[in-house]
Amino acid sequence: MDGGPQARRALVIGAGLSGSAVAHSLASRGWSVMVLDQAEGVGAGASGLPAGLAAPHVSPDDNVLSRITRAGVQATLQRAQALLQSGTDWALTGVLEHNLAGKRRLPTGNAVPEEAQDNTNECSTQASEEQVAAAGLPPGTPALWHARAGWIRPRQLVAAQLQTPGVQVLWGRKANAIERRGELWVVTDAQGQTLGQAPLMVVASAFDSLALLRPLPGFAVPLNPLRGQISFGHMHGLTDAQRRLLPPFPVNGHGSFISNVPTPNGQPGWYIGSTFERNCEQAPVREEDHAANQLRLATLLPNLGAAMQHQFGPEHIHGWAGLRCTLPNRLPAVGPIDSERLPGLWLCAGMGARGISLAVLCGELTAAWLCKEPLPLEPALAKHLTAERYIGKAKPP
Ligand SMILES: Cc1cc2nc3c(=O)[nH]c(=O)nc-3n(C[C@H](O)[C@H](O)[C@H](O)COP(=O)(O)OP(=O)(O)OC[C@H]3O[C@@H](n4cnc5c(N)ncnc54)[C@H](O)[C@@H]3O)c2cc1C
Questions:
Q1: Which of 154, 91, 71 is nearest to 361 (CA)?
Q2: Residues enclosing ligand 1, CB less than 6 A?
Q3: pLDDT of the residue at 84
Q4: Nearest-angstrom CA–CA distance, 347 and 13
Q5: How far is the CA of 206 from the centre of ligand 1 (A)?
Q6: Whether 323 contacts 46, CB under 8 Å
Q7: Domain count of the fold of the chain
Q8: Exposed (0-12), middle (13-18) or buried (19+): which is 255, by Cβ within 10 Å?
């Protein structure tokens, strides 16, 4: 891809967090981008999640996943600040991580990230006694405080990114096959009608990318489905006593609890999730998953869990379920699939349970590679995200 003015046309398949982030990053650089989605509107896939967290992963050696999620969360929060309404669509609240069984440890010694040495307020730290108390946890409960973290409503972010000038979205277009004709990648529907064509195609249709790409020679990215369900209810259904127990910020560490965030019908709600179910390619809402989420809340925030038992009854509880698309090392696959055999065919998928934290960064990485700009994260980290890692190519585009 030479990135010259004639070539600056892209076709993106999938209008979730991944596809909309790619579209936004390219269109912001002057590209003309057409996005196709099989659904009739925003949020048909996992990005229809009513509310989720942007929060970093931490590890004692500040490993690759920790460094990538930190860069990703930073990119997402900046994008949210630029495009979304604070308090309604997202909020930089900070997130308390209940460190159950002490499994999360902050980096120490040489592994302490540079930014933590300069300004600890911006980084993950041990939670203070006040923060632990505000979460309603007993004194001495092990917990971390992620200052650069908060909640986001992914649909709002998707919709805002798709509104970028230069992005055109065609809803209700299911890609059935893709093929290369001359210099162009062409996508067709089930009747063989052309839906779109461009010199660059970015497949961002999560687990469904597999059906489109598997027929291509040598395709080797092992995308998997991982179903998940959240349970939620409305704030107006809570008693005063229950409200008094709500933490003023999201809490994660064994699933996550968020409150005072608009639900899909616009009324403020509370959320607990989510379940993890492998080998399932459908995402119906299930009663037994509400019970699993109730247990999750009881472990994460025991006092609140006990007080909210009755909120899980069928007259109060609502659910939303979706399919995450995962890869074995929990890092997405971005960029050319096989630049020699399939030039101009790129992927942005495999966000797993962290699409809110990673998709914006992956969109920026895609655009930086295409436009030959400095990368939005260290090249040594970016190479862990390349889709071509699955064909044994270590060198990024
Ligand atoms: C229960 C649950 C809780 C979660 N919580 C969090 C969280 O707290 N924090 C976090 O960071 N992440 C969370 N995630 C993960 C996050 O939601 C996903 O990683 C992210 O939404 C994936 O975005 P995507 O664009 O890759 O995929 P999707 O949002 O699934 O988008 C794929 C799009 O492709 C379209 N499509 C599919 N096939 C075709 C085709 N053939 N032709 C045309 N269009 C097609 C679909 O209609 C869809 O719109 C959660 C996920 C779930 C399920």
A1: 71
A2: 13-19, 36-39, 44-47, 49, 52-53, 154, 174-175, 204-206, 208, 228-230, 256, 273-274, 322, 324-325, 349, 351-357, 359
A3: 98
A4: 10
A5: 6
A6: yes
A7: 2
A8: buried
Q: How far is the CA of 354 from the centre of ligand 1 (A)?
A: 10
pTM recorded for the entire structure: 0.96
pLDDT of residue 218: 85
CA of 201 to the centre of ligand 1 (A): 19
- Among 278, 293, 326, where does a domain finish? 326
Rounded Cα–Cα distance for residues 213 and 219 (Å): 7
Listing from the earlier edge strand, what are the strands of the sheet with 177-181?
177-181, 184-188, 194-198
- Tell me what pLDDT residue 105 has: 86
CA distances from 177 to 26, 190, 350 (A): 24, 8, 20
Check residue 6 and give its pLDDT.
52
Q: Among 324, 347, 354, name the best residue to mutate to test ligand 1's pocket (greatest count of ligand atoms within 8 A of Cβ).
A: 324
Q: Are residues 267 and 286 in the same domain?
A: yes
Which residue type sits at 2?
Answer: D
CB 70 within 8 A of CB 357: no
d(CA 254, CA 14): 30
Question: What is residue 103's predicted lDDT score, i.e. its pLDDT?
Answer: 79
Instruction: With CA atoms as reference, report the closest residue to 30 among 381, 360, 373, 393.
Output: 373
Q: Which atom of ligand 1 is nearest to the CA of 53?
A: 8
Mark whether 199 and 272 lie in a shared domain: no
Contact residues for 234 (Cβ-Cβ < 8 A; gap 6+) = 263, 267, 268, 269, 270, 316
CATH number at residue 140: 3.30.9.10
Identify the pLDDT of residue 116. 63
Ligand 1 atom closest to 358 (CA): 11
Domain that holds residue 266: 99-149+225-326
Q: Helix H segments across the chain?
A: 17-27, 64-83, 114-118, 129-134, 154-162, 209-213, 240-244, 287-300, 302-307, 355-370, 379-382
| Phi–psi pair at 317, nearest 5 degrees | -85, 145
Candidates 40, 173, 289, 356: which one to mutate for ligand 1, based on the most atoms within 8 Å of Cβ?
Answer: 356
Where the chain has pLDDT below 70, the residues are 1-7, 115-122, 394-396
- For 345, the enclosing helix (H) or strand (E) is strand 345-349
Pair 104, 65: CB distance under 8 Å: no
